[in-house]
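Q: What would this complex look like in 3D?
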Amino acid sequence: MAQTPGSEARTGLKLISPTAIYVILLLAVPLATVLMYSVMTGGRGNVSLPLTFENYTELASKSVYGYLLLKSLMVALIVTAITVLLAYPVAYFVSFHVKPERKSLWLFLITIPFWTSYIIRVSLWFVILGYDGVLDKTLMALGIMDTQLNFSSYGIPAIIFVLAHAYAPFAVLPIFVSLEKVDRSLLEAGQDLGESRWVTFLRVTLPLSMPGVIAAALIVFIPTVGDYVTPKLVGDGKQPLIANFIETQLLKLQDFPQGSAFAVVSMLMVAFVSVLFVLANKRFIGGQK
Amino acid sequence: MTFSDDRPTMIEFKDVHKYYGDYHALRGINGTIKAGEFFSLLGPSGCGKTTLLRTIAGFEDISSGVIMIDGKDMAGVAANVRPTNMVFQSYAIFPHMSVEENVGFGLRKDPRSKEEKAKAVAEALEMVGLKGFGKRAAHALSGGQRQRVALARALILKPKVLLLDEPLSALDKKMREHMQVELIKLQRQVGITFILVTHDQEEALVMSDRIAVMFEGEIAQLADPETLYRRPATRKVADFIGTMNFIPAEILSEAGDKVEVNAKGLGHVALDIAQAPEKTGEAPVVGLRPETLTLLYDDQKAPERETDGVIDEVIYFGDMTYYDVYLGGTDVEVRLSMRNVPGRPVLDVGTKVRVAWSPSALVLFR
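A: Here is my prediction, written as structure tokens for the whole assembly.
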């Protein structure tokens, strides 16, 4: 049966409608709600008109908010840097030194930490790093330390440590994929043209794997900026980051407009940094097929 | 052809063996490659020709034996310090670099100034016919252009030996024929020893000063193209290079420098010992190339010998016609080729013909 363009379009809409409804209800509507709340007047536990930008001016007026944002950003960037730097050698090893038939086994092993819930893993770190935890007991038993180290009370360093561990597998996979795509004859060509293995790595392998590195950085950076569990459980909860602050605003103080405004600002910040990553990625992708 | 006889030796193989686990990839390679020679390693896939090339480049270690380049033993010499450069089968053009960055890749440690290096890159590009392509992105090039970039990138370093790993196999037929001629010209111009790996016997014949034909990890014959074509050392080589008719034969006598045989359909023939390469123990056959057999028209007379025959098949190529002919009332069928010149009609299947041939064109394998 011949179909008119109009009926074809209707069929198309019908076909994508489950997906479209899912996206609209679960992503677009909540986002729009947050955006709307952020410009409304708030009371305790409710929102009302008139529309106002006061929530945003409040954020801009107090340096403590800026400090909080900056601190979260720095933590996320440091976690990203550490994670990517540690993941690269792992990905490189699996891609270049593991026999092809064993590679999937290795990747499978790398994903094992994911079998345990993230929250449980973070709680376990608290058991290991916390006061009188596994680390302290071991160090004291070995006579290396004679007082409690209580690393988890160090706040920011403990948060960074735990986050870097939690996101390491996320970073390994995209870097591995980009390394797999590097034509091995290019490495032979590099050596054939007079460069050592190390210089060939710097001049050929590393630039060609940059798209994977940047993808890994994005994958780690975006969730760590908004991480809520780790600062809460590790670091004695004394070092709240963005997500913890938003939680306080929305759930404890029930100041929906103020919390929403903060959420919007942090989203914009993440978007900005992500765009920088994407632009950096373009520079590397631009030169290749 | 005596091109290579008086040249100094550039590469020498002494009993080179290579094992991959249990697999014996190179089985005692011996031979020399002369300076300034266009040398080809020819053979079917899996014969070890690429492995041999990679041992010269230093990408593969050898299990035993010696490879000398320009008088120096290459044992333990890494690929990046060998006086060789390679044009890879895939060309291995760096996709994240421009054409000129690719060509200048090997010049990093060159003490020359930036301007001089840029000039050298421009000259190398001009030499391979890519003048003005320097700023292009490598991924925007066609297959033929990539190959030229790979050539320029290798030649700019002025290696003693240029290694080419099936460089033309990825190109279409027209481009391939064009590049064959260009490569020959380029090799004459730069005077560098070229070693080409190919499975295409025609390509090897067209391009090379000398050819090593390899089967199963061994060199079956190392000779100039004409010798290889006219006097193949074994039936296998003869079969691999061009087309050859094999006719069962019986050795009647062998005395001094004469061998007398009775070839089925051809009759008694006296051959010079030079036409009979070393014995390999196979059943005796004589070989004849299609173009050494000629159909006789009307009252033409054969200059040497002639045999009756019947045409069994006609294959028309435009400039040439191939005929499959049964010889002298036997079941021996030979293929012969005739140029289609005016006044020489294409004959039909079943026509009775006379075939002229020359005993000197025969090769005896036994």
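A: To summarize the key features: Residues 62-285 of chain A form a domain with the MetI-like fold fold (CATH 1.10.3720.10). Chain A has a mean pLDDT of 83.
Q: Very helpful, thank you.
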